[in-house]
Amino acid sequence: MKRIGFIGAGSMAEAMIKGLVKSGAMEPEAIFVTNQSNTARLRELSETYGVCGEADTAKVAARSDTLVLAMKPKDAAGGIAALRPYLRKEQLLISVLAGIPIHTIQHYAGLELPVVRAMPNTSAAIQKSATAFAASPLVTKEQMQEAADLFATVGSVTIVEESALDAVTAVAGSGPAFVYRFVEALQASAAELGLPEKTAKQLIIDMMAGAAQMLETGRDPSVMRKEITSAGGTTEAGLRMLDDHQFEQTVISCVKEAANRSAELRDMFAAKI
């Protein structure tokens, strides 16, 4: 039985552990998790999911066929370097560290290993992440499938070139925050119009869920928008206000700025090696 070790025990690590256990993809006893010093957190994960919480990072690295790097990016250099004595050339490293490129991870590790660099999002907590990942040349077909199967337990999976991950980070990684910001504005407008908070919240949730399911049919969003928009009607009036305030260009600028920041973080980590 293959074994997987999580270096870091935060919310993303928990989401992936939950997905693996809930889906039956792995037995809990084949899953190890460690962190820097929070033994209470390790105990919590062990009691909740039946996995092996281990304070000794060296033991987790030595026992695992695959290691998931899920520490905070600021701790990556020291955390990965500490694993060096225990890493094996055939061992797969899966990184969910935002902004840290594959060649930097290999530099920290001190040797060329098969590395998968992934960008899941916070919806992994409910197994609805839109995850994209890129792989180094040393990743085998079997390991590629292993990574895809892992992320499939927390949502959808797309394989991309590493050069696309800045765009992926902006669209799918930061994207939920942009959607939530739009929802905040809908809630504020509903309050100004006198709708009770509870009523408005449920209407917005149901509206967003329905719109998302309509998008899943594959129909063009511009076509569906036009079908709702009657000449001289309420939707047209609202859309005209969005156009007057350059809504589309604002969203484009928002996403591009997020992508630019992702590139800056990537270059910052790369510059340190």
Entry summary:
The chain has 273 residues and is α/β, with parallel strands linked by helices. The protein has helices spanning 11-23, 39-49, 57-63, 76-81, 102-109, 141-152, 165-173, 175-192, 197-215, 221-228, 234-244, 247-271; strands at residues 4-7, 31-34, 52-53, 66-69, 92-95, 115-119, 129-135, 155-159.
| Oligomeric status | single chain
Distance between the termini: 36 Å
The biggest sheet, with number of strands, parallel, antiparallel or mixed sense and barrel status, is: 8 strands, mixed
Q: For this structure, what is the CATH class of the largest domain?
A: Alpha Beta
Shape: elongated
Radius of gyration: 22 Å
Describe the structure.
This protein folds into two domains: 2-159, Rossmann fold (3-Layer(aba) Sandwich), CATH 3.40.50; 166-261, ProC C-terminal domain-like (ProC C-terminal domain-like fold), CATH 1.10.3730. It is an alpha/beta fold and 273 residues long. It is elongated, with a radius of gyration of 22 Å. It has helices spanning 11-23, 39-49, 57-63, 76-81, 102-109, 141-152, 165-173, 175-192, 197-215, 221-228, 234-244, 247-271; strands spanning 4-7, 31-34, 52-53, 66-69, 92-95, 115-119, 129-135, 155-159. The protein has an eight-stranded mixed beta sheet with strand order 3-2-1-4-5-6-7-8, with helices on both faces. Pathway: Amino-acid biosynthesis; L-proline biosynthesis; L-proline from L-glutamate 5-semialdehyde: step 1/1.
